[in-house]
Amino acid sequence: MNTDLYTTTLRQLNAKIIPFIIICYFVANLDKTNISIAALQMNADLGLSASMYGLGVGMFYISYIIFEIPSNVIMTKVGARVWIARIMITWGIVSAGMSLVQTPTQLYVMRFLLGMAEAGFTPGIIYYISCWFPKSNRARAMSFFYMGSVMASIIGLPISGTILNMHGIADIAGWRWLFAIEGVPAIVLGVLVLWRLPQTPDHAPWLSTEQKGWLKAQLARDNASVEVGSNHSWLSALKNKTVLLLSLVWFLQAFGSIGITLFLPLIIKSMASEQSNIVISLLSAVPFIAACLFMYLNGRHSDTTNERSWHLGLPLIISGLSLAVAIYSSNLLVAYGLLVLTVGFNFALTPIFWAVTTEKLAGVAAAASIAFINTVANFVGLGLPPLLGKIKDMTNSYHYGLLIVAVALIIGGVIGILVSRPTRSRAAEQPASRLS
Asked: Which residues form the signal peptide (predicted)?
């Protein structure tokens, strides 16, 4: 392998693609999860119980589930650049429109429309990354991409808490300012996608002819050993055993990423009710600093050691165990520290999971399968928030709901270790591929 060509090409990819999609994913998750901060005021204004809030959160996932696979299949027809731009512009408009809701029913409708608008964005970007980054660097690329999600909590939660304090300006509630202001960046970025994201390596003006040739050849070699490739239809890929097992792992992982993330400010508020909303938003951001660090270190170490299985499953098991211990800890500081570890390790497997997935899948079948895997996980978003809200209303505690989350994470970690183990043929290929 030409080391200089490898280094310069990857440097260009990291500089030209990664920062922009990090920003896009930051905004996507900000618009999807800022309802958790808005809830600190909105629930009282709209007369929402914990169960009603959970239903409002869950409505997003109903439409997301319906439109996820069709969205990704359409993306392979019209091109990722155009389709990602369409997604961002429409969700920005809907997100800003959340500021106008007056009743619980209107909230449910707008959350449904938000899920419809955003469907396909995450799997679309994951598929886009797999079309540009060789598998030897894919986990690191995925970790950088998902840092956008994490930064939406590290930076976005405090920003959202600050905007919430605009309450009363021009006689407008703080949570309405929150939705109105944070919807605009998605619209702007959606327009910029058409200019910033090239369709294929051949369309990248910042790659030389030699770099384009090397990159296309390397990606072709990577795709030659996939389990589900271009010879599979997207429908047949959804019946593949590997795809189904990967879907189960991502489904169980989502108990943590969806269940904890969307309720974290409310959970921390229940632990420290005397604290202000600004303090709660800052405390809610800290676990995601750990998530950002754990994702990068786990992804980097997995790429360096060429090991996927334990890097995927073990963090999820540790996350579940940390949460289980946190539930029964009588010391608030210890419980909070364990929540930090729960979130950190829950996110740590993410880049490895998608690296494994895109190493096993390619072509249109990969686009559909990635969307399917993400869709299955979104059933958690549909059912878990209302369930957690109902349990909280019935028991006046989040403990029993969080115990369900902990068990799901541990089971998901065990299955993840099993499904991500390389086959004999693939294991034999790996040392050679690192030298090629």
From this structure: none
